[in-house]
Structures are given as structure tokens and as C-alpha cells.
Amino acid sequence: MEPVFKYIFALIVGIMFIIFFIGFAYNYIGTEENKMSLLLTKSFDDQLNILSIAQDSVMNYDFGAETALSFNQGALRSGSQNSRKTDNIVYSPVNLKGKELIIWTKKWDMPYAVTNFFYMTNKNYKYVLIYDRTSKDFVDLISDPKEEIPEVFKVVTYDADKLREQFNDVRSSYSSFTKVKFIYFSEQPSNSLVNSLENINNAEVISIIPGDDSWQFGTIDFQADKEAMYIGQPMLLGAIFVDDYSNYLFNLEKKALPKLKEITEVYINKASFMSSALQCQEYGLINTQLQYLYNLNEESEPEEFVKTANNLENINKEHFGSECPGVF
Amino acid sequence: MKKKGMIGMMETFMIIFVIFILIGFGMYFFYKFSVSSTITEAQETCELSSYEKLLTTLDLPGLQCSFKASPKDCVDTAKLRAFIDTKAAENVGTQACTMKIVFKQIYPQPGMRVNDTECTPDKMRSPEFPESCGKWTLKVPKEELTKNKAARVSSTPVSLYYPHIKQYGIGQLEITTYTYT
Fold it and tell me: At residue B46, does pLDDT exceed 90?
């Protein structure tokens, strides 16, 4: 064999081997990464499932290393692998990157337990609650860690007038966060303040407009003509932590309302069964209200949901006793 | 000289051929090992899922007892029956593995001939209830999903409440997971 041919041959074979081994290593690394991220999303979702049996619970979830998670329209994803569909209703930024995650869960009652909502964030996000004279008491209540939002979320509150005065200080002090979310609670939010806040680079502004004095239902204004209703305080809290309008709407229309329908159907069936087994007329009365709640949908007014839930609670409390046990 | 060169080339090809065969063997065993370790991991994940399901099923809002809208630590059998009859029951379980979920009645003890009888609304309304039937099947997988798979059972005791007769009983939540052998 000619020496030159020998060298060329050795070079070709050598390159082939190198390409083969590098390709194999890359392939293996990719497969392992996919497997790891699948396991990560699975164990995280399991953790949420276990937390979902709690009434009201908060925890710091430590991944042990820098981890990127994304929650978008009911899908949980880590890395570039296919997403995992989760049954849990999560209100959080779409992309969460960090070593730790704050998770808070709260039960949504209508008036019976329907499901748990999860609120998640990390230290890269800041939440500023703005109040005026119409909303001060309510904002004080929800920002009080003993009452509602846990201390770890480090939400701050501002009076709308003071925020106008200190606008530049606020803008510079929060510039290092990935996102600052301004949540303006008011019966009549001021457009000029909303417009100025929207001009901050890393800011997002939403307004929460109550339907009545109790703040149990109302409208979330995501700006740019995007509005959605909220039903109950846990859903209002969801609007604070959710990333955008589309995710809020997805959680409302594709998750929370169908879940309410599911549970209401169970109580309708139970009331019918109890009625046939015990011959109590009260079950007919409660069944009418349950049917009404079951037929409400995303087109209905939030007030109707809350009023029907209150009616159901009253009927269940007042019309049932030892002879005819309550439905829920 | 030419013949010597030919022999040299043949030798080189033979060596490369043998190396390829060795690499092929190596890869075959590596993938075999890799597949078996993935199956083991899947089985472990499935087992963990069944324990998680044991914990969470008892507290599903659609099953848990409640009194004036506040939850109690028992399973309301009227709600359980109602839940089984809704579409929501089909979604109970996990994406990770095939599961069968059954609530069994332990005390009052159902009659020998009925301990495997499903508690339908008619059976629950009968004057003999709770002795008239023995179980509530929350989820049963399709037969083709359980074929050639090993079944592993995990269970936990539960308190059962029969609201229409205002009595409590003792039961067992049984979760069977099906994994590849």
C-alpha cells in the first residue's frame, strides 16, 4: 500500500470514528436531559397534587440547582422536552428560572370546595398593590400575611396619590427585577396613573374593579381592551400572580369553570339520590339552585355565580337538619 | 509488491470490521441496559404515583365528606356514587401508569355473595344496605392496557359515610397499578 493512501485511509476511518462517537455522546446527553426534565416536571406536578389537599399552605420549593420551568396554558415544561399537561390550576409567570420557587395554595369554595388554586413566583418578580380611598381596607386585608398573601411573596402596597409623587423613585428601585407587576385596586382606576406605570420598561399593569363592596366578584382589566371576570377572592389573587391575560382566561374558562361544573354535577346527583332515598322536599329546592349554577358559563355575569353560591350556602345551612342531612 | 499491498489492505479492512462488530456489540448491550433501566424507573414512578394517589383520592372535593361546607375526614358514599356516574371520574388517575381504583366495604361486612357486587344507587337505596353490596369502582382500566402487565396493590383504610342512613362504616381504598414485568 502506498504510504500516502495509507494516511488518507487512516484519516477517513479516524474521522468516521470521531463523528460516530461525538454523535453518540450528543444523542445520549439529549436523551438523558429529556429524561431528567420529564422526571422533574413529573415530581413537581406530584408535589402540587399532594399540596392540593391542603386548605391553605405555603412552601419554598428548592430544586437544588438553577432550574427553568414554564407554565403556559395548563402545560408544565422544563427544558426543551415535550410539555406535561397538569390538572392543577397555576397562576404564575410563564417562565420561572431560579433555584427556588415560592408556592402558595388556596382552596376555591363555591360554596363547597371546588379545587385548589396555586400561586407561584420567585424573587425575580415584584408585586405592587396600589390602593385608593375606595380600596384601602381591602388591600390592607389581602396584603396582611396573617389574613391572605404570605410574607414570602414580599408584596408592597402604595397609595395611588403617593405613588404619583414617588414615581421616579419607584421606577428606579424596581428596575433590577425581571418584571414588576402593578395591581391597581379601585372602583374607578385613574387612566393617567395606569398610562405612566405602563411606560416603565419591565412593568405590567392590571386594574381590579370590584362588582360590589365585598370584592367577591368583579372585573380584571388587563389593559388594551382585555377584560375578564373574577369569581371569589382566590381567583382575584390569581390575577395578581398570573403572567398575562391569555393564561388568566385559560385558567378561568378551561380549568376553573369546568371544575365547578364537575363538582356541581356530583352534588346534583347526590341531591337526587338523597331525595329518592329520604323523600325530603328540601333536596328539590337545593337541586334547583345547583342546576342554575351548573348552567352558568363564561358568558354569565360573575355576580350570578356568587349570588347562587350564597343562596346554596343558605339553603344548605337553614333547610337541612337531622332528618334530612345537608348536601354539602 | 502489489500482492503484499493487497494483503496489507485486507488486514486493515479485517481489523476495522472486527472493531465495528465490537462497537456494535457494545451498543447493543448498552441500549439493552438503558431500556431496562428506563423500565425500572417507569415502574418506580408508577409505584410512587399510586402512593400519591392514595393520599390525594381521599381528599378529592368530589368524594370527601363535608358538614355545612367544611370538610371532614371520611368518604361520602353518596358523593362517591354520584362522582362515579359523572364524566369527571374518567379523568381520575395519572398519566404515568395504568390504575384501578376501588373503595371496598370492610365493616359492616357485606354478605359473602355480594362482597364483589358494585354499590349502585338501587343497591344503596335497598333496605339491606350496607350489607347489600361491597364495592365502589372509581376507575377501571381497559383490558388491553392491563394485558401482560404485573399488578401491584396498595391500600389504605378509610372511613365511609352513608348519608342517607346516617351511618358510618369502615372501608379500604385499593389502588392497583399495572406495570411491565
Answer: no
Cell of A63: 430544586
Which residues lie below 8 Å from residue A10, measured CB to CB, with a gap of 6+? Answer: none
Residue A220 DSSP code: E
> pLDDT band at residue A122, thresholds of 50, 70 and 90?
very high
Please say if the pLDDT value at position A126 is more than 90: yes
> What secondary structure does DSSP assign to chain B, as a single string?
-HHHHHHHHHHHHHHHHHHHHHHHHHHHHHHHHHHHHHHHHHHHHHHHHHHHHHHHHTT-TTTEEEETTEEEEEEEHHHHHHHHTSGGGGG-S-SSSEEEEEEEEEESPPPTTTTTSB--HHHHHSTTTTTT--EEEEE---HHHHTTEEEEEEEEEEEEEETTTTEEEEEEEEEEEEEE-
Q: What ipTM describes this predicted complex?
A: 0.86
Overall number of domains in chain A: 3
Are A129 and A238 within one domain?
Answer: yes
Of B16, B86, B96, the CB nearest to A42: B96
Q: What tens digit of pLDDT does each residue of A215-272 get?
A: 999 999 999 899 999 999 999 999 999 999 999 999 999 999 999 999 999 999 999 9
CATH number of the domain that residue A146 is part of: 3.40.50
Does B59 sit within 8 Å of A328, measured CB to CB?
no
b/e for A133-167, b at 16 or more Cβ within 10 A? Answer: eebeebbeebbeeeebbbebbebebbebeebeeee
Domain that holds residue A74: 3-102
Chain B residues with CB under 8 Å of A42 CB are 45, 96
SS3 call for A325? coil
User: Is residue A41 located within the same domain as residue A7?
Assistant: yes
Residue burial A240-269, b: 16+ Cβ < 10 Å; e: rest: bbbbebebbbbbbeebbbebbbbbbbbbbb
Query: Are residues A227 and A135 both part of a single domain?
Result: yes
Pick from A44, A265, A273, A289 the residue to mutate for testing the B interface (most B CBs within 10 Å): A273
Q: Note the pTM of the prediction, 2 decimals.
A: 0.90
